[in-house]
């Protein structure tokens, strides 16, 4: 019985140590989540305004604007930019991205992977990918996003790329986040049909085509960076939820172990009293 009590005490100490770790990670994830949400909210007006401007040009010059970014190159490859995490303990965040990725990818598609967890997954399955932007979700360096967009748009203009899509995790709220597949290039004019656009006459110099060709790379930079920050926000929200659940489970387990310990101690005391009474009667 004493051995059982000592074993239970060791388990209680072990669970309490685990609880301290999960609680600390929960607090860290909460702090990172707050910072990422603030950054996401600050970015939205910027890329929303660029999106509105692109929509304004396409809507006011419908059928008259020609741009290589509006046409799919039939001979090129399909490109996927995929955002995963570089750290673990974030619940089903990566698993959901991998599931969406498997559903979308075809053997000839190219992958630009962001996040070391996704890179490890592809390496394990012997799938080739571009690795130069793997750490982008950790650095969130806008210069790297500019470099990525410059590389992709140049290849698109050379007709090496048929389309560009991005798989990221959409942040709905602190408890809800879902993987999404977004079309980046070619830019589809129907995506802007439901937008509220100004009815004022707009003059574009030197031409709508020239403005659009300069504006679309800026649009891609802002949208890719916005989706990247949204994925990082979702990752931290998922990790915070996972660590909160782990902390709650640890508390429940400690209560169960304490109950078992008290029962074992009470049983030991009862046995000792019984032995003393039996000795006295003898």
UniProtKB/TrEMBL annotation:
Produces ATP from ADP in the presence of a proton gradient across the membrane. The gamma chain is believed to be important in regulating ATPase activity and the flow of protons through the CF(0) complex. Belongs to the ATPase gamma chain family. CDD domains: F1-ATPase_gamma (cd12151). Residues 240-267 form a coiled coil. InterPro entries: ATP_synth_F1_ATPase_gsu, ATP_synth_F1_gsu, ATP_synth_F1_gsu_CS. It holds the Pfam family ATP-synt. PROSITE patterns: ATPASE_GAMMA (PS00153). It comes from the Bacteria. F-type ATPases have 2 components, CF(1) - the catalytic core - and CF(0) - the membrane proton channel. CF(1) has five subunits: alpha(3), beta(3), gamma(1), delta(1), epsilon(1). CF(0) has three main subunits: a, b and c. Its main location: membrane. Keywords: ATP synthesis, Cell membrane, CF(1), Coiled coil, Hydrogen ion transport, Ion transport, Membrane, Transport. It comes from Massilimicrobiota timonensis. It is found in: Cell membrane; Membrane. This is ATP synthase gamma chain. Transmembrane segments: none annotated. It is a peripheral membrane protein.
């Amino acid at each position: 019985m004493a051995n059982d009590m000592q074993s239970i005490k060791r388990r209680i100490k072990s669970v309490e140590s685990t609880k301290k770790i999960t609680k600390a990670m929960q607090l860290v994830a909460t702090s990172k989540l707050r910072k990422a949400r603030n950054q996401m909210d600050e970015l939205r007006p910027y890329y929303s305004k660029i999106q509105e401007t692109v929509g304004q040009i396409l809507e006011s010059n419908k059928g008259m604007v020609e741009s290589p970014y509006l046409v799919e190159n039939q001979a090129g490859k399909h490109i996927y930019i995929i955002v995963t995490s570089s750290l673990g303990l974030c619940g089903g965040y990566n698993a959901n991205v991998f599931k969406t990725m498997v559903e979308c990818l075809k053997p000839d598609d190219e992958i630009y992977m962001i996040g070391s967890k996704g890179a490890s997954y592809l390496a394990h399955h012997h799938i080739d990918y571009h690795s130069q932007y793997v750490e982008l979700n950790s650095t969130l360096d806008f210069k790297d996003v500019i470099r990525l967009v410059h590389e992709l748009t140049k290849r698109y203009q050379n007709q090496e790329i048929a389309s560009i899509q991005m798989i990221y995790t959409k942040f709905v709220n602190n408890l809800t986040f879902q993987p999404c597949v977004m079309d980046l290039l070619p830019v589809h004019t129907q995506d802007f049909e439901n937008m509220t656009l100004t009815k004022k006459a707009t003059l574009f110099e030197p031409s709508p085509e020239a403005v659009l060709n300069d504006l679309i790379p800026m649009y891609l930079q802002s949208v890719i960076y916005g989706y990247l920050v949204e994925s990082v926000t979702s990752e931290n929200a998922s990790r915070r939820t996972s660590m909160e659940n782990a902390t709650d489970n640890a508390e429940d387990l400690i209560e169960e172990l304490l109950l078992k310990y008290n029962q074992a101690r009470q049983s030991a005391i009862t046995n000792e009293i019984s032995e003393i009474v039996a000795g006295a009667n003898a």
